[in-house]
Amino acid sequence: MDISYAATPFLAWLVAGGLKFCINSLRAGKPAFALIGYGGMPSNHSAIVSSMAALIAFRQGIGDPAFGVALSLAFIVMLDANSLRRQVGRHAEAINRLAMTDARHVPLRERMGHTRAEILGGVVTGCVVAWVVSRLSA
Asked: 54-104 pLDDT, tens per residue?
C-alpha cells in the first residue's frame, strides 16, 4: 500500500513549519513560539500544494490530468496567499491602530499572507520534499 500521496503534503507541512520556526528563532535570537502562525518564510500552504503537484509530476509526468488539477490548486492557493490574505493582514494593522484607545478591543492577528519570496520558499520546500519522497518510495 502506497501512502506517499497522503504523507507528502503532511511531511511538507512539517518541514516548512520546522524551517519557519528555525528562521523566526534565529531572527528573534530566542525560540519564536509566539511567531507560529500565518505568514513568514517559507509558506506552509505553498509547500503543501507544491509538494503534491511535484510528486504527481515526478511519478506520472506533467502530461497527467492530475498534475493539471494539482497545479491549478497550487496557483489558487499561492495567489490567495500573496493578495487576499496579505490585504487582510494590512486591514488588521489599520483596525488595530484605529482601535488602540478602546480598552475592549481585542487585537486582530496582523501576520497574514506571504511575500513572493516566502511563497517561493514554500514552493522550493514542497518540491524538495516531493523529490525525496519520490526517490525513497520508488
From this structure: 999 999 999 999 999 999 999 999 998 888 777 887 888 899 888 888 888
> DSSP letter string over 42-97?
SPHHHHHHHHHHHHHHHHH-TTSHHHHHHHHHHHHHHHHHHTHHHHHHHHHHHHHH
- DSSP class of residue 109 equals P
CA atoms within 13 A on the CB side of 135: 6
Q: Which three cell numbers stand for residue 100?
A: 488602540
Cβ atoms of 51 and 12 closer than 8 Å = yes
Which own/partner pairs from 20-23 qualify as long-range (CB within 8 Å, at least 24 positions apart)? 20/44
Measure Cα distances from 55 to 14, 47, 51, 106, 108 in Å. Answer: 16, 12, 6, 42, 37
Tell me, yes or no, if the pTM score tops 0.70.
yes
